[in-house]
């Protein structure tokens, strides 16, 4: 079934449901705001691009999606791919790759192949997710420590020696703000999980920079003023040569968006005892990525942490996700200058915490108890993600997983257990 959940929920919608969705949407927006900015910065894009992505992509994913409570937006899983595409092909190349990825997702949803995602080995998903988390964390060390590095290499093996060589340039003020923000994020998450702790922690860290006159970079000092309105939509360059050049990146973006969104929807189903529509979800992901690209945004997908926040805050229908997008739009229209004061070490703390959560450390011991084939598959995918390329890692991981499954064809595959990201 490919009908959006919004149409289903509207048949019995009420004022009480709207009030629940309104409160949840505002709460999720406060979580999504600093994350969207931080993910855009880590991806090598202008921070305002993250807001555009959360607004446009998030609205379409909720309005057209197959889950009652899914929240869409830019996520950490895309940082590695986006950074590489922007570095090699510029922002225009990323926009085209995102546009093509949206078309691929529409095709996948139209031909009802949403459930095929469950056949991707879980070890491969865990491997590239942990690998992405390692890359994200390493990319934030410069801003977390305040290191004086003019050109930080994108390659992990080249990046680490450069960071180590610059260790003596660490800025004590920057490190203090980063540790303060990280400590507050952890504290709020444990003591007040319903509070939008991310925005509160980043705000306190940034306020310390402003009031103390600390020599710490902010969004405004490094990137200039944030946009106070959405850009005009326009089609990307669709020349044949450009399309062929960026098609591999589009395939990876589409794969990540499909896997991440359906995993998120599965986790949401378990939390609300519901059932999402996978093919409607893929269609929504396709529409969301096309819409985001038309406004010059980043790739979008279902965001597991934000979806869980929506559920815990009382979100009941897709209206909550649409409210979350509209609240971020209002912030952009009326408070963009204030967001420029956000301190970059505080944003780095947000992403380091995101990377830690992505790696799911509470499951590491369980991985060691898995069959040796799963452990090898996870390790191979992880290493290839970190030291080679995410595209290679996914291709090799899926191919190797298929070979192992064929090798043990007489053994029925275990039931899919979605990660709790």
TrEMBL record:
Its main location: membrane. Residues 18-360 form the SLC26A/SulP transporter domain. The chain crosses the membrane at residues 12-41, 47-64, 71-88, 94-111, 123-141, 170-188, 195-214, 246-268, 326-356, 376-404. It is found in: Membrane. Pfam families: Sulfate_transp. Keywords: Membrane, Transmembrane, Transmembrane helix. It comes from the Bacteria. It is a multi-pass membrane protein. This is SulP family inorganic anion transporter. It comes from Roseibium aestuarii. The lineage of its organism: Bacteria, Pseudomonadati, Pseudomonadota, Alphaproteobacteria, Hyphomicrobiales.
């Amino acid at each position: 079934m490919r009908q959006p959940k919004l149409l289903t929920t509207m048949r019995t919608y009420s004022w009480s449901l709207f009030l629940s969705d309104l409160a949840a949407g505002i709460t999720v927006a406060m979580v999504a705001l600093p994350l969207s900015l931080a993910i855009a910065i880590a991806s090598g894009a202008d921070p305002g691009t993250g807001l555009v992505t959360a607004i446009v992509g998030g609205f379409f994913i909720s309005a057209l999606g197959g889950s009652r409570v899914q929240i869409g937006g830019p996520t950490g899983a895309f940082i590695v791919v986006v950074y590489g595409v922007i570095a090699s092909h510029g922002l225009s190349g990323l926009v085209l790759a995102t546009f093509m990825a949206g078309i691929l997702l529409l095709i996948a949803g139209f031909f009802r192949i949403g459930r095929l995602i469950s056949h991707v080995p879980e070890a491969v998903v865990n491997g590239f997710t942990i690998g992405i988390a390692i890359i994200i964390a390493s990319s934030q060390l410069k801003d977390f420590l305040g290191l004086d590095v003019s050109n930080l290499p994108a390659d992990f093996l080249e990046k680490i020696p450069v960071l180590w060589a610059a260790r003596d340039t660490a800025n004590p003020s920057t490190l203090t703000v980063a540790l303060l923000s990280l400590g507050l994020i952890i504290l709020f998450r444990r003591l007040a999980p319903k509070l939008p702790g991310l925005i509160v922690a980043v705000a306190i860290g940034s306020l310390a920079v402003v009031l103390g006159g600390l020599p710490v970079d902010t969004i405004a000092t490094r990137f200039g003023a944030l946009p106070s309105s959405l850009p005009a939509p326009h089609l990307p360059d669709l020349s044949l040569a450009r399309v062929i050049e960026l098609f591999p990146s589009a395939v990876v973006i589409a794969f990540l968006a499909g896997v991440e969104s359906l995993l998120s929807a599965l986790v949401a189903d378990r939390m609300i005892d519901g059932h999402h529509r996978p093919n409607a979800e893929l269609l929504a992901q396709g529409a969301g990525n096309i819409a985001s690209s038309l406004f010059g945004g980043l790739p979008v997908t279902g965001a597991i942490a934000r979806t869980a926040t929506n559920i815990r805050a009382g979100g009941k229908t897709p209206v909550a996700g649409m409210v979350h997008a509209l609240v971020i739009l209002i912030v952009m229209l009326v408070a963009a200058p204030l967001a420029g004061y956000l301190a970059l070490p505080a944003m780095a703390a947000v992403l380091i915490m995101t990377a830690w959560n992505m790696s799911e450390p509470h499951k590491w011991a369980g991985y060691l108890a898995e069959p040796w084939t799963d452990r090898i598959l996870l390790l191979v995918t992880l290493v290839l993600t970190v030291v080679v390329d995410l595209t290679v890692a996914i291709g090799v991981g899926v191919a190797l997983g298929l070979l192992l499954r064929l090798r043990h064809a007489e053994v029925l595959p275990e039931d899919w257990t979605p990660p709790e990201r």
